[in-house]
Amino acid sequence: MTEVPDELIAAASKARSVTVLTGAGMSAESGLPTFRDAQTGLWSKYDPMTLATPESWQEDPGLVWAWYQNRRIQLLAVQPNDGHRALAQWGSHRDIRIVTQNVDDLHERAGSSNVTHVHGSLLKSHCDTCRSDFEATVSAPEAERVARRSAVAGERSARASCGSGRCFPRSSSVMR
């Protein structure tokens, strides 16, 4: 682990509260691919900057949903790293706010409670039809089935639903 400079430790220890900004490098240390890393396998031909837009969601929600399901599956396979745990431990003794660009829950799994996600969360979804927010579920077989139908066959796949029968939810991390 990288040593924290003494000047930073001294300044942080005198502060009433501390805000820590984190980005992709924090979770990459846990083995989670960054948003802009080249995707592998089925997803290698898709540009993540294109998939993470409301326009992509309108064009083919099944494809976008499957891509996000794949990212959720990757997230469940990794654990918080020393950096996540160090911030959580520090936060148990001090007033610390974490503002992260990451859409994962690794800060929370490490024990941090005061976390703001700038770009939303892979684990939360929002329905544009009924305006409901809900927890996103991960189903590997569903993600693979939807991905194959949409990406390989080129067809518009079945849309995930928040339960009302009329809803078309998208990950809260879809760019707005």
TrEMBL record:
<dbReference type="InterPro" id="IPR026590">
    <property type="entry name" value="Ssirtuin_cat_dom"/>
</dbReference>
<feature type="binding site">
    <location>
        <position position="167"/>
    </location>
    <ligand>
        <name>Zn(2+)</name>
    </ligand>
</feature>
<keyword id="KW-0520">NAD</keyword>
<keyword id="KW-0862">Zinc</keyword>
<dbReference type="InterPro" id="IPR050134">
    <property type="entry name" value="NAD-dep_sirtuin_deacylases"/>
</dbReference>
<dbReference type="InterPro" id="IPR003000">
    <property type="entry name" value="Sirtuin"/>
</dbReference>
<feature type="domain" description="Deacetylase sirtuin-type">
    <location>
        <begin position="1"/>
        <end position="176"/>
    </location>
</feature>
<dbReference type="GO" id="GO:0046872">
    <property type="term" value="F:metal ion binding"/>
</dbReference>
<feature type="binding site">
    <location>
        <position position="130"/>
    </location>
    <ligand>
        <name>Zn(2+)</name>
    </ligand>
</feature>
<dbReference type="GO" id="GO:0017136">
    <property type="term" value="F:histone deacetylase activity, NAD-dependent"/>
</dbReference>
<protein>
    <recommendedName>
        <fullName>protein acetyllysine N-acetyltransferase</fullName>
        <ecNumber>2.3.1.286</ecNumber>
    </recommendedName>
</protein>
<dbReference type="GO" id="GO:0070403">
    <property type="term" value="F:NAD+ binding"/>
</dbReference>
<keyword id="KW-0808">Transferase</keyword>
<feature type="binding site">
    <location>
        <position position="127"/>
    </location>
    <ligand>
        <name>Zn(2+)</name>
    </ligand>
</feature>
<keyword id="KW-0378">Hydrolase</keyword>
<dbReference type="GO" id="GO:0016787">
    <property type="term" value="F:hydrolase activity"/>
</dbReference>
<dbReference type="InterPro" id="IPR029035">
    <property type="entry name" value="DHS-like_NAD/FAD-binding_dom"/>
</dbReference>
<keyword id="KW-0479">Metal-binding</keyword>
<dbReference type="Pfam" id="PF02146">
    <property type="entry name" value="SIR2"/>
</dbReference>
<feature type="active site" description="Proton acceptor">
    <location>
        <position position="119"/>
    </location>
</feature>
<feature type="binding site">
    <location>
        <position position="162"/>
    </location>
    <ligand>
        <name>Zn(2+)</name>
    </ligand>
</feature>
